Hints:
- The complex is a heterodimer of chains A (91) and B (599).
- Chain A has 91 residues and is of the alpha+beta class.
- Chain A has one domain (9-85): Phosphatidylinositol 3-kinase Catalytic Subunit, Chain A, domain 1 (Ubiquitin-like (UB roll)).
- Chain A has 2 helices and 6 strands, in the order ββαββαββ.
- In chain A, strands 2-1-5-3-4 form a 5-stranded mixed β-sheet.
- In chain A, strand 1 (9-16) and strand 2 (19-26) form a beta hairpin.
- Chain A is globular.
- Chain B has 3 domains: 2-129, Cytidine Deaminase, domain 2 (3-Layer(aba) Sandwich); 139-337, NAD(P)-binding Rossmann-like Domain (Rossmann fold), CATH 3.40.50.720; 357-597, Rossmann fold (3-Layer(aba) Sandwich).
- Chain B has 18 helices and 23 strands.
- In chain B, the strands form 4 sheets. Chain B has an 8-stranded mixed β-sheet with strand order 18-17-16-19-20-21-22-23, with helices on both faces.
- In chain B, helix 8 (180-195) links the parallel strand 9 and strand 10.
- In chain B, helix 8 (180-195) runs parallel beside helix 11 (301-324) and helix 12 (370-382) packs across helix 17.
- The longest helix of chain B has 24 residues, at 301-324.
- Chains A and B meet through strand 3, strand 5 and strand 6 of A and strand 4, helix 2, strand 5 and helix 3 of B.
- Strand 6 (88-90) of chain A pairs antiparallel with strand 4 (42-44) of chain B, so a sheet runs across the interface.
Amino acid sequence: MSTKPExxxxxxxxxxxxxxKEFKFNVHFNIRRVRExxxxxxxxxxxxxxxxxxxxxxxxxxxxxDLNKSLLEYxxxxxxxxxxxxxxxxx
Amino acid sequence: xxxxxxxxxxxxxxxxxxxxxxxxxxxxxxxxxxxxxSATHAKVHEAEVAKLFSILEIDEKVLVAQLxxxxxxxFHSALDDEYPVAFVDGFLSLVVPYYGFIDTYSFPRLxxxxxxxxxxxxxxxxxTTFNVISGQFRNELxxxxxxxxxxxxxxxxxxxxxxxxxxLAVVLGEVLFENELKYLTMLLTSINxxxxxxxNIDVFVPETTVPDEFRKILxxxxxxxxxxxxxxxxxxxxxxxxxxxxxxxxxxxxxxxGAKNDFEVNAKRKIFIDSSxxxxxxxxxxDFRYNQSxxxxxxxxxxxxxxxxxxxxxxxxxxxxxxxGLNVSFNKFLRLxxxxxxxxxxxxxxxxxxxxxxxxxxxxxIGAGSLGNAIMYTLALLSLRHEVRGTIYVIDPDILxxxxxSRHILATIADVGDxxxxxxxxxxxxxxxxxxxxxxxxxxxxxxxxxxxxIAMVAVDNxxxxxxxxxxxxxxxxxxxxxxxxxxxxxxxxxxxxxxLGCIYWKDTERINESRAYPAAxxxxxxxxxxxxxxxxxxxxxxxxxxxxxxxxxxxxxxxxLERDVSWFHRVLEKADNCGCNCKDKSFIxxxxxKWFKR
Lengths: 91, 599
């Protein structure tokens, strides 16, 4: 008999430049899924691979680069702030 | 940018700023990211962008624009279109030509500005996107502060650059957590006033989150450190304020809010302020400590405001003495009641708490200038704690000019050029109170409007309007005036037996040429505005009515220590022979009686 993962939801604030939005995510969502939802919510253009999430933890920026890891595995708590970024190039 | 250009490299920088309202941001920081740069392009990696965004989050700054250089002329390339730092409507991208080797005069003409809108970049003119704050603006901003100093020192032209090196500290210790509403109000009001008088302040305060209620006044940030900076720079972008940074060995003066804990700031003079119910407190004895539990019994944000005004007056006095060689005495200890205006009486009237709901009725505030600002600011502060109800009509035809900033407590640099009534509406937001802005001269109101005024608060700078309001016979007329450091507040509700406004304003009017810019100290204005609000409450709240001012409250010079003997502090309100309203005439008095008492 398999046990269902705990249904725990957390509220996360995501900043993209000056815009800030709040999301409710299950702690078992992986970073890939979180990234997709966030990019869509900010009306940004795919491909999703162009975007990267960072966790703002005690003033430091922690890259959430393992897309298969869950929020829980990264230890991201309720009320955390994530930063959505992409590369900036000029020419 | 030129450093990169000297190596034949393009360069990316970002302009950060402080949001002043929905439409304006004060750009006050350039952020240079780590980048890979070459002659044909520059690149900022995700980790660096994340660092930039974390500054926006922690310091509550706004990213206004990305800038980058080109070796030749300026234009937005396909690469620039595709890979900006953010795709957000309204975001700006500037392209600076010739690797930035252009002078400041040419910068606005040669730099191309693009705005991102609905998926594309559109070129916009520099001059309609940015307002450049010039050195001339700085002179205008401090013009009246200069006049004030000259009026105080009476020694001809004053060089206000001397105050730039004056080392001033503002301190609020752990006492903050005993009453956040009161002490944050006092701290932020102190910063507001001092930003208009000084170029250099160090602030020491425990880190805390600012309650949401403070959105009602001026600008808001959730972090106290960010809020202090935002308030200061929104008023004075030319000065410097440091919060919780390294302490100087010795400050010229420290304003300490509350009795406990002064962060061990070392200062030649320490001025302590606090308030207890209706009493505003100020003291300077280093060895004297208020016993918080027995002496500070409650709070009232009007007396808190006046305590700040008194404290900032002492700071300014200290500056005049130290920088300009005056020798004005200090208030060693002061306990001023805002109920009966007695000095150093022991009672703070703690039994007379303000009710939770304060209904101010229908009020016409004539004048949204410096005194009108102080009145609305005090009302907005009151609304942090009380539900302030009623309707207030704010009447003023003028536009806010840069020189007004030195004393309009609600104004920020983003408000320059706006009608003064709009500034008041925008910066003093009291949701439970209906505030109606009327950008007209009082004389342009219809006769029926003028004749139906119940409570008039007169905060204008000309005798003609004072007399006109009085001739229209409002039921109660509250009047205030400030010239330099002198304050006069009067209340007129009995023109049968006592003088009207024309009787006191002014036998010596000729002394003041009201058509020229005149000096008025911002702390004196706050003092007068807070007193006028106190009088409004005494009119509206029955249990306070017996304390209503029945003569003239006059402080000839706020810089001279207020004394125990209060006889000089009040002036009897007698009918004058040369009254501008002829209120000795029977017809005038009959009209008043018929209007308000025989309906």
